[in-house]
């Protein structure tokens, strides 16, 4: 069985933000926050590392694969 990569799921982190964007049906837009979401400095490409972008995309992809989205 292949080893599954794990990501830091800290609120405001790249993986969390990817999942949140998927949940709210926002477009894919890699970013994260230094501290809490919307209460701290946002980090956007090109300041993001490739690993941070990968974590964002993994969170977004996991959200899309689950099919769970906010019901308005």
Which strands sit side by side, in order, in the main sheet?
Answer: 1-2
**How far apart lie the N and C ends?**
39 Å
Structural class: mainly alpha
Q: Taking Cα atoms only, what radius of gyration do you get, to the nearest Å?
A: 12 Å
- Percentage beta strand: 5-15%
Describe this structure in words.
The chain is mainly α. The chain has one domain (14-66). Helices cover 38% and strands 6% of the residues. The protein has helices spanning 14-23, 50-66; strands spanning 32-33, 42-43. The chain has a two-stranded antiparallel ribbon. A hairpin with an 8-residue loop joins strand 1 (32-33) and strand 2.
In summary, what is this structure?
This protein has 72 residues and is mainly alpha-helical. The chain has helices at residues 14-23, 50-66; strands at residues 32-33, 42-43.
What are the SSEs and their pairings?
Elements: H1 14-23, E1 32-33, E2 42-43, H2 50-66
Antiparallel strand pairs: 1-2
Helix pairs in contact: 1-2
Supply database-style keywords.
72 residues, mainly alpha, two-stranded antiparallel sheet
């Amino acid at each position: 069985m292949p080893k599954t990569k794990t990501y830091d799921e800290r609120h405001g982190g790249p993986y969390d933000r990817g999942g949140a964007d998927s949940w709210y049906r926002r477009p894919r837009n890699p970013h994260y926050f230094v501290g809490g979401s919307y209460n701290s400095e946002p980090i956007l490409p090109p300041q993001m590392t490739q690993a941070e972008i990968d974590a964002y995309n993994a969170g977004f992809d996991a959200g899309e694969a689950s099919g769970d989205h906010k019901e308005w």
